Predict the structure.
Amino acid sequence: MRDENGARSFSVQSSVIDLLQAGLTDTPLAHLLDNIPELVFVKDIAGYYTYMNVAARKGFGCGSECVKGRKLTIFDVAPHDFAHSVDEIDRRIMSTGVGSFNTEECLPGPDGQIQWFSCTRIPIHNAKCEVIGIAGIMRDITATKRQETLRRSHAALLEMIVQGDPLPIILDAVVNTVESLLDNLCGSIMLLDEKQAVLRNGAAPSLPENYLSLVDGVKIGPNVGSCGTTAWRREAVYVCDTFQDVLWKDYVEIVMRHGLRSCWSTPIMGNGGVLLGTFALYSGTVRLPSALEQEIIEMATNIAGIAIDRRRAEERVHFMAHHDPLTGLSNRNLFWTQFCRALHEAKRENRLVAITYIDLDNFKQINDMHGHAAGDEVLRNVAERIMGCIRASDIAVRLGGDEFAIIFSNVVHDEPGILRRLEAIRERAAEPIVLENTSVTVTCSSGTAFYPQDGDTPESLLAKADAAMYEAKKTGRNRVRIFQQEYGSGI
C-alpha cells in the first residue's frame, strides 16, 4: 500500500512518463516539465540523453548541453560509482523491457551533500514494440530520508539512555551520530562544573587532542569563545568566523592552529531550566548553520540534556541512599562498605587503619532547650568541623543521632598524627556555634581502635572504639581515648 503522498507522486510520475513514452516532447510539454520539481529525462537505446527538463539539468549540473546537440551519458553527468549502477539498471530495462519503479538512489549534489531520489524508469517502444530508449523521472526524497534517519538516530540514542548505558558512551554516541548525519563538521559536548563555574570536556571524538586539552576547564564568561559565552548567556551563540569574532580574541591562535573557522554552540538545559553544559559544532569554513544543521543541533542538545539529567538523578538517588541527608556525610549503610574496603586494602598493603567513634556530650540538653531545629544546626556544624580536620583519604560518617565515626584509611605508622587530628576535632567541636538568636557550645568524646593490633574485622574494631569512647565519657567527657585492654593512661 502507498500513502496519500506516495500515491500522488506515483500518479504524477506515471502521467509524465506516459507523455514522454508517447513522444509528446514538443514545446508545450517541455514548458510543463520545466516547471515541475521532479527530474525528468529521456535516453536513447545507446544511453545518450535526448531530453532533460530544467530540474534534471540543474540536478546533474550539465546546463543545456543535452538539448543543444551534445551527446551526454550518465557517465558525463554523475560520479562514476553512481553512473555505473544506473547504467546497469538502464541496460537491464532495455534488454528485458521491464521498468523499474520507485527505487531509491543517492547522488552527491553540487554542494557535496548527498541527495536521495525515488526513481522510476520505463522502456520506450516504437510502433513495432521494440525498445528504443528509456523515460525516467526522479523525485527528491532527501528531506524525507533525513527525517527518517533522524528519527531512527533519535530512537537509538533514547534506547541507550533507557538501557542505562554509561553517560560518556551516550555522549560519544550523540556526537558520532551528529557527525554521521552532517558533512565536514566536528561535534563537542562540554559539561558544566557548577562549583568552579568551568566547562569540562564531555565528548569530542573528532576534535584534536591538543585543542581539547587547552579548552578543558575553561571559565564561563561573556567573551569566552562560543561555548563559554553560551554557558554565560544561556542561549545559542553562532560564530561564523572565529578568526575575526571578538568572542574568540583570546583563543584565536588556538583555532587558527587547528583550522576551526566557525563554531556554533547551544546550551544544554535540564529540568527546571538548569544549565548542564553546551553542545557545539565546528566547521573549517566561514559560515552559519543551515536549517537542517540547526534541527540536528536541537536534537543533539535535547538528547544530551535527557542523558545528563538522568545521570544526575541516578547520582542523587545513589547519594541519598548512602549519605546522611542532614550532614551529607556517609551513612551507616555506606560506612560498612567503606570500612571493609579500607581493611582489605590495609591487609594487602601492610598498613594501619584507625577507626574513631565520636559521641557528642549532653546533646539531648540542646534539643530540649533550643529545639530540634537548633540541634540539627549543631549536627551540621560539627560535621563540617570534622571534615575540616581530616584528610581527603579519611572518611567521616554519621552513624545516627549524635554519633559519628571516622575511618583513617591511609595510616602508615602514624598514631601520633591520628591523635593530633582527633585533638583538633575535639577543640574545633567545642567552639561556640551561632544559632538564630543565641549560641551554644557542645563537646564530644571519642574512642579509637587500630587495625591490626585491636582486631581484624569491622565489627570487632568498632566495638573496641565504642568501648574507648565510653571510657572517655566515664572520665569526664570532652576526652580523646585510644583503646587499651585495661584503659590505661590514654590521653
